[in-house]
Structure formats: C-alpha cells, structure tokens
Amino acid sequence: MTLRLLEGSAAIAESAIVAGCRFFAGYPMSPFTGLLENMSHQLPAAGGVFLNAESEIEGVNMALGAAAAGARAATGSCGQGIALMQETIAEAALNQTPIVVFNMARNQQDYFQCTRGGGWGDYRTITLAPKDIPEAVEHTQLLFHLADKHRAPTILYGDPLIAQTRVGVDMRPLDFGPLPPKDWALDGTGGGTGRSRQVWTWAMGKATDPGPGPDRHWRAVGEKFDAIAAVEARHEQSGVDDAETVVVAFGSAAKFVEYVVAELRADGHRVGWFRPVTLWPFPGAALERATTQAKNVLVFELNAGQMLDDVRMHAADRGAVRFIGGVSIAESGLAYGDLLDAPVIRQRILDEIEERTA
Amino acid sequence: MTTIDTSQPPTQPARKVADFKPSLLLGEHSLCPGCGEPVALRVLLEVLQELDIVQRTIGVVGHGCYGSFVRIMDIDVLQCLHGRAPACATGIKRVRPDCAVFTMQGDGDMANEGLQEVLHAAARGEKITCVMLNNGVFGDTGGQQTATTVLGQRTKTSLEGRNAETHGYPIPVAELVAGLRGAAYVARTAVSTAAGVAQTKRTLRRAFEVQLSGAGFGLVEILTMCPTGWFVPTAEGPDYLTGSLEQAYPLGELVSP
Question: How distant, in Å, are the alpha carbons of B22, B23, B129 from that of B19?
C-alpha cells in the first residue's frame, strides 16, 4: 500500500476518475470549489470532459445529459447550490439516470436536503457520509457503482474537513462486483428501428410500443427505492453491546464522537457510538438493535436537529433520545464552529449521563 | 399537357397523403387542428432521414404540446425538465461528439424558463442544434403570455393584450443568440405557408449540416400556428401568424458560416 499526501478535494477528484467518471460540470461554491478546480485539472488529462456550468442548475442538467448518454457523470456544490439542483436530482431519480452529486457541504445542515430531497415525486437519494478523506475516496467509487447498479442519483455528503485537509491516501480502483449493461443509454442507434430509446420521467413509450406510463412507472420507481432501502443501508458501531449511553453521529462529527467515546470508555463509562454510513437508506434496523438496552440515545450533529428525526423513528426507545448537537458555524460561514471540539462533546455527553442518573 | 390513359390500370397504386409521411413517424399526433408544431416535426424528421443521420441522432425534448411527440418520433430521446434542454444536450454531445444532437423547445421553454441555457450553450459554441417552436403563447396550459407574446396580443394572462408598460417587451431569441460569437447558424422561419414549410425544411437541413461540420452552435426559430391559444378560428391561424408574430420576428438567416 502506497500512501500519498493529498488534499481531500484532489483525492476525491482522482478517485472519481479512477471510478470511470468522464464528465463533470459544476459551479464554484466553497468548500466544494476545490473539487471543481481539481476536476478541471485532472479530468481532461484523463480523456474526460470538464465544463464550467453557468449555474448549478445547468451543471446538474449537463451531468444528467451525459449520464443519459451512458457516461459516468457527476456534478457538485453545497448548501444552496444543492438546493438549486433538487428539481433535477428528483428528475434523475424518476427518469432513472445515474448521476453522482458531490455535496462538499459547509457543515451538517444539508442532512434534510440530502436525505429528503427538495424535488418532486416519490424518490429517495442514496447518500453516503464519509467520516474522513480515506473513506470519502472509497465512497466516491462506491457511489458511481450504486448509481449504475440502481439507475439512480447518488450523493456524497462531505464537509470542509474532508474537502480542505490533507492525509495519506491509498488510491486504487475498487471492485464492487458486476453491473447490468447500460442498454437503456442513448447513443442514437435506436433511430429508425421502431425500438428507439427514451429516457423519460413519464415513461409513456412509443405509439407502436407503449411504455408503462406515469402511474405504473412511478409506482415501480417507489418500489425500487423500497428495495434499495432493504439492502444498501450501512453503518458502523462500537461498544453498543453493554452501553447505557449510545451516541449517534455522522460524517466528520462521528469521528470526533468516536474519539470522545473511546476516552469515556477508558474512564469506565458504559458508552458506545453508532454511525450511519448511509444517511439514506438510514440504517434504522441496526440502530434499533444497537439501542435496545440503552438508557440514553444521544444525537450529536452540527445543525438544529435533522438526523434527530431518523434517530427518533428508529431508536428502540424514542423517549431515550436526546439532542446534544446544535448549529455551529465559523464566522466565515465556511467551516465548523466551536461545537466540533472533543472537550465540548465530552462535556455534553457527561452532562446527559449525569442528568439521567441523578 | 399530360393526358392520363384510363384504358390501362395504373402502373403504380394510388398514393394517399399518409403514404408520404416519414417512416420515423410512429403514429398520429394528438395536437389541436391547425397547430403548426406537427408540421415542424415532420420536416425535421424528413431532414434526419435525408441526411442519413437517423441512427446517430439524439433528441432532447422540453415541456410543451410538442412533448407528446416523444411518443411518435422513432429516434433516441431524452425528455428533460422545462427549459433545460440545451444543458442536457450539451452533456450528451460532449460525451457523444459523433452524434447529431438537437433540442425541441417552445417559446415558453426556451425564452422564459430556459433563456439562460440557450444563451450559454450558444456562447460556448456547443455543436448542437436548438429548435424553438415559437407561437408566442403557452399552448399546453391553454394560452397564457410568454416572453415572446407580441405587443397587443391577447392571452389569458394579458386579456386586454400585451402592453409594454405593464408586461414589458417581447424577447427576440434569434437576435439575442445571433449576437453571440459561438453561434454558427441562426435562422427564423415560419410554417404558415407551403413555401414557409419548404423553407423551414431547407433551413433545418442547413442547421444540421452546420452542426455536423463542427462550426458551432445552431438555432432554428420556427414560428408556428396556435389557433387554440390565440383564440382565433383554426383556418385563420396562418394569416394571424403573418399579421402578428411575423411582423415582430422577421424571417431569414441571421448567422450562417
């Protein structure tokens, strides 16, 4: 294994290209900007196409077009830029175009828009939330695989720590298994055959070969996401078997929680941690098992309480769920604020333990 | 003078108009009587056949009455969100540079919701052909004002007629695009007369030839009748077009290599 010191944005760009990404279009918005710049440098050299889109809306639609034509294609942004893309992300879910969206977010306030989406229709977006750069490199390749496997848009939920810090990275292609052929992709060869292809949210087919139409198509898409939810949920946990207190966190915040919980366990506290790796599908069944004997289920996330909803839905005892996170953003608006700090997290966990045992 | 010998059976069976339809048409359109859009579709498909590019053409269709054409055109199609066709077509063309890629949009789709897309695609010189079916009204939703509704035209959202003070001025899309350096071919035609239909076909052919030559972006703005959305009798559609839209939007080639 050879480690190379890479900034997260450069590592993710390289991993995307290793995964076969050959089209990227985007619009700058920090901390996503670094990924955009790296794609503009690396992708043309790899024989791919990079485009400076006129806005996030066109960026995601260019990616949709490229993906509909069979290429592995991606875009990205953060915060309000992802909000602008929501109509198209929903469209990609409904017309079953596999695009990858890199949400290199400012903080953790994008949970709702990643997992619930803001677009129209009965759809979900597979969302992976790496805790650090090496995992983001792995997730990047996995997201292209999952997008193609399920013909659905997928989202990487990164943050400033993942985009803008450096670590040693082991960059190599990962094999996630075989994929179905892209026989649905538009290449023009269907013309005049009577069996020309369509990528169409309404799925009405041709006059001579009618499709399922919106009613049956949208039901089938909904059922597809149910099936994805049953097989793609991923999580990590530690110390939950004997834990009176389970701390739930995702992304970079989960890495801090992991550290703090290890400290607390060394001090004799019966504490464990649980990390959803996929935010959607949320690993609800696993969380229920992990919290069966917990008196405290503490949610630490850097927002006003978004994943909190999912934890409340799935914890074994929803009365045990307490929120110990909060909005925390630096004055610049581009980095985490004071809450993402091990002593602060430690104190918040201890306060809850003492309150429950008092 | 040609005389017809009726003493012998005809050497060829009698041909009906339907026999002339391009084989890429898979069925009847479902639009209103007097609509200009099916005529534009027909000549577009004829051009693809005549240029022998049917099996390397990808269409990107927006949202309007013409959206129903996806069901009857026998070519590979992405049906995209309202206004986004030039962006989607950009993505397709960039990864499939050997394909002929065109968009089919209305004035609502291109001049209202998607003006940014078409202008930037033109400025980038994308090697695609954008086709705008301009009838100056939102036809699919029943006749509301679009960006290209001409001054004085009555619509359901400008009942007294469009006036500049309240509703602003119409947007001439072809002229806007023609002002951008990436635009290699820009023309405006109308399908309100037989000559206009023939000119539209020649224009579309030229536009696709320019695309295939790699010269840059192409736009063909086609003025189409919408008697339903104009609230005029079906038969008066062509004359209404000549007296209203065509006065505001002069026909002809604006940019050609």
Answer: 8, 9, 28
CB distance from A193 to chain B under 8 Å? yes
Of B173, B171, B255, nearest in space to B217 by CA: B255
CB nearest to B87's CB, from A61, A188, A204: A61
Q: In this predicted structure, what is the pLDDT of residue B136?
A: 97
Helical axes A56-68 vs B115-124, angle rounded to 10°:
70
CB contact under 8 A, A69 and B120: no
Q: Which residues of chain B have pLDDT under 70?
A: 1-2, 4, 10, 13-21
Q: Residue B212 belongs to a domain with what CATH number? A: 3.40.50.970
Question: Which of B140, B126, B113, B178 lies closest to B37, judged by CA?
Answer: B140
Percentage above 70 pLDDT, chain B? 95
Q: According to the model, what pLDDT value does residue B16 have?
A: 63
> Which among A49, A186, A208 has CB closest to B58?
A186
What DSSP line would sit under A4-29, residue for residue?
Answer: EEEEHHHHHHHHHHHTTEEEEEE---
How far is Cα A35 from Cα A28, in angstroms, rounded to an integer?
9
> Is the CB of residue A311 less than 8 Å from the CB of residue A287?
yes
What domain range is B153 assigned to?
A: 27-255
Question: Tokens 């119409």 map to which residue?
Answer: B170
Q: Nearest Cα to A9, choosing from A140, A115, A128?
A: A140
Residue B177 in domain: yes
Q: Side by side, which strands form the sheet with A49-52?
A: A49-52, A21-26, A72-77, A99-104, A154-158, A126-128, A278-280
Which residues share a beta bridge with A6?
Answer: A167
- Sequence letter at residue A145: H
Q: Do residues B207 and B220 lie in contact, with contact meaning Cβ atoms separated by under 8 Å?
A: yes
Does B73 reach chain A within 8 Å, measured CB to CB?
yes
Q: Please, where are the H alpha helices in chain B? A: 37-50, 85-95, 107, 115-124, 164-167, 173-178, 194-213, 227-230, 237-243, 245-248
Tokens of B72: 């009857």
All domains of chain A, ordered by start, with CATH?
4-169 (3.40.50.970), 235-357 (3.40.50.920)
Lookup: tokens for A158: 């990164």
Residue B73's CB: how many other CB atoms inside 10 A?
27
- Structure-token match 């959202």, residue found: B157
Strand (E) positions, A4-121? 4-7, 21-26, 49-52, 72-77, 99-104
**Which tens digit of pLDDT belongs to each residue from A43-81?**
999 999 999 999 999 999 999 999 999 999 999 999 999
Q: DSSP letter at A31?
A: T
Tokens of A114: 């990643």
Q: pLDDT tens across B55-102, in order?
A: 999 999 999 999 999 999 999 999 999 999 999 999 999 999 999 999
Number of structural domains (chain B) is 1
Q: How far apart are CA A286 and CA A119, in angstroms?
A: 28
Nearest by CB: B78 against A54, A55, A186? A186
Put simply, whether B117 touches A (Cβ < 8 Å) is yes
Taking only residues 48 to 77 of chain A, the set having a beta carbon closer than 8 angstroms to any beta carbon of chain B reads 49, 51, 53-55, 57-58, 61-71, 73
